Amino acid sequence: MVVKLALVGANGRMGTRIDALSASDDSVRIVERFGRSSRMDSLVSGSIDVIVDFSSEAGTRQSIELARKSKAALLVGTTGLSNAMQQELLDLGSTNAVLLAPNTSLGVAVTRRLAKIAAELLGPSGWAVDIVESHHDRKKDAPSGTAIAIAKSVEAGGMPVAAERIHAIRAGDTIGEHEIRFAGPSERLHIMHQAVSRDLFAAGAIRAAKWLAGRGPGSYSMEDVLG
Ligand code: NAD
User: Fold this and answer.
1) pLDDT tens, position by position, 160-191
2) 106-195 has which fold?
3) What pTM was computed for the model?
4) What residue's CA is closest to ligand 1, atom 17?
5) Residue 164, number of CB atoms within 10 A of its CB
6) Fewer beta carbons under 10 A from the terminal one: N or C of the chain?
7) Running DSSP on this structure, what letter comes out for residue 137?
8) d(CA 90, CA 87)
9) Residue 141: beta bridge partners?
10) Which residues, judged by CB distance below 6 Å to any ligand atom, belong to the binding site of ligand 1?
């Protein structure tokens, strides 16, 4: 089966890489590409399996409309979304398959799991935690969606993370680095993930889109994709 995708944000940095990687994958096909000024009324129910959104808050709003109209599944990689938009995505999960993935990398999913385990094991014995993230200077949101997701994982492990303990650096052409620094009496434990190419996110997005195709309504995460 070929999974049919509509790409929202097709001309952006991520959209371009998803487009390029899909071209060499026989099991997916991009059948619609939408940019900032595209009309999105061309989609009809059944014409696509998954909408893949790497755009902006406005683009994600349009993707939600598109998903409602076409009944397609929706994969949102866009970050920096408002709470209201995140709530709308949760609501959409009652009728469509929705995957909110602030980071589509396999390594980051593992990092989150390790951070939770570390918090569970260290938390009760007086350790502090800081999350440090670095990205290129054109990234609009700070802290990154991934840093916020990592903080949630640490908190799920029982260690609270105050907003001021998440540190964002915007400089140069850094694709994405996230470090969780646990500091305890006389010792330090650091967990770090570095993205060395944007292709890792694009490959992860394609993998997640294939996983999402044909799923029933629900709100999913990259944890579900990993199994
Ligand atoms: P970008 O600015 O290069 O691309 C965004 C594209 O979306 C642009 O081409 C823009 O014209 C388009 N766009 C904006 N509003 C739109 C609208 N209303 N309708 C249709 N298209 C619209 O940015 P990027 O680096 O490609 O990142 C895009 C988003 O993905 C950001 O939020 C970024 O933080 C996020 N991101 C997520 C991951 C992940 O793993 N989930 C990885 C990298 C980036």
Assistant:
1) 999 999 999 999 999 999 999 999 999 999 99
2) Dihydrodipicolinate Reductase; domain 2 (3.30.360)
3) 0.87
4) 59
5) 7
6) C
7) T
8) 5
9) none
10) 8-9, 11-15, 34-36, 54-56, 58-59, 62, 77-80, 101-104, 201
